[in-house]
Amino acid sequence: MIQTLGITELAIFYIAYFLKMYQQHHKGIQTNQLGKGNKAKRIILIEKLLNLSSITNILVILISAIFNTSIFESQFVRSLGLLLIGVGTSIFIIAMYTMKDNWRAGIPAKDKTEMVTKGIYKFSRNPAFFGFDLTYLGASLCFGNIILFIVAILAIIMMHLQILEEEKFLTVTFGNNYLEYKNKVGRYFIFI
Questions:
Q1: What pLDDT is attached to residue 32?
Q2: Of 29, 189, 188, 20, which is closest to residue 108 (Cα–Cα)?
Q3: I need a labelling partner for 173 at 20 to 30 A (CA). Which of 40, 48, 77, 141 fits?
Q4: Is 190 inside any structural domain?
Q5: Is residue 192 included in any domain, yes or no?
Q6: pLDDT tens digits, 105-115
Q7: 97 within a domain of the structure (yes/no)
């Protein structure tokens, strides 16, 4: 039961992700800009490692879920994982919806986007990343094994490094407006 619910929640997460990419592609917007474009080598490296760690995480989650490799026998721990996947997926979907066509994966090389500070972005500067983090942590608890934990932590670290680069980009792009926003709203959530 937990295995089936976890796979369903993760399917919703990734279907939402790829539907958003498809929708934007249909409008002529290149959503996935990870490791692409004329950017500093450091940014390209971080984005490529983020992309690699995310893909690896998806594969390890799928293998772990299909073969039910959980080291946790406690239904409570695995159910907590389900809850985190559900909350993470919800936060991620709300963040994508709120961003509308300003949402990108990676720092846009030349696209002009607007700064979004409404909705869930009143409470978190990076709710989509926070949603990913919760989803990956939830999957680690739900389908937990050592390899999955390591891959999830690496992906979360790479997302954090990506956030740091995006903050530099947003400061240059939006100036004082972003700095004021940054001073009011937490990186992951108001209290974090």
A1: 67
A2: 29
A3: 48
A4: no
A5: no
A6: 777 767 778 88
A7: yes
